[in-house]
Design brief:
Elements: H1 5-26, H2 34-43, H3 55-70, H4 75-84, H5 96-104, H6 109-113, H7 132-137, H8 142-154, H9 160-178, H10 186-194, H11 201-211, H12 218-225, H13 233-246, H14 251-259, H15 265-280, H16 287-292, H17 298-301
Helix pairs in contact: 1-3, 1-15, 3-4, 4-5, 8-9, 9-10, 9-13, 9-15, 10-11, 10-13, 11-13, 12-13, 13-14, 13-15, 14-15
The structure holds magnesium ion.
Magnesium ion (MG) binds near residues 54, 55, 91, 266 and 267.
Amino acid sequence: MASTHEERLQRARVSLEGLSVGDALGGFFEFNQAAVLDRAVKTRKLPDVQWHFTDDTNMALSIYENLRLYEQIEQQELAVSFATHYDRSRGYGPSIHRFVPRVLSGQPWREAASGAFDGAGSFGNGGAMRVSPVGAYFADDMDAVVKNAHASTEVTHSHPEGVAGAIAGAVAAALAWQLRSDTVDRNQFISRVLEHVPASDIYDRLQTASFLRDETTVQEAKAVLGNGSRVTAQDTVPFVLWCAGEKLTNYEEAIWLTASAGGDVDTTCAMVGGIVSMVTGLEGIPADWIAHREPLPAWALGD
Ligand SMILES: [Mg+2]
């Protein structure tokens, strides 16, 4: 039976919590020196200040708002929300700076986004980083996951690799929810995601990830799959799914494992958090981690 809007929104909210806590903690380690990161991961010492979220969460808030209001992705409204809530201090990628004023001046999103990367569209990891609430919301309907993940990404990242990366991320969140009471290993998890990913470089790299042997370490996985340091979808999503599959039932361990590889840590931890929280539920996210993260704004949550 299909979930109600309220049930779907509740799932999207859990994923948003998982995403934003991962983003806000990961933000402290973004492109950190290996020694500093190593010490933080080994001691598990949490930053003793408020954790601010970054662009990953800020854009995921617009997605959550869009699903809350329209029960599916409405692209023009999503573009307007991205532009309205744009906040330079959150560390956005470069192409948003042209997009925002165009949308705010009333241009349709497709025109506002056109011209990015000589018309080829962006394959940055920006579509994938914010997509897990889409997978969570439609987790009872995989066709809707794929369709709405595509729609939510295309607004800013229209390159087929950017879209494929976001589809993989959304499917992973949906599948995590579907499999929440089953036991699947990492390679089974990635293989199940692959069933829904279009032919692409992302697909090939996910397949590589699914072939890595059980004993593979996170450093070995990083060497093969990347860690987001190129901020492309191809360099981010396969590694994220490897980490999520490795620690699918433990939010805290999943985040530390992901952070330990360095790279674009706010985004890799945001994605892993948004996926793994679908298995662990809100209870699986440490309460003191949620308390450290700055509060999520009322405009998005509607409460
Ligand atoms: Mg970020």
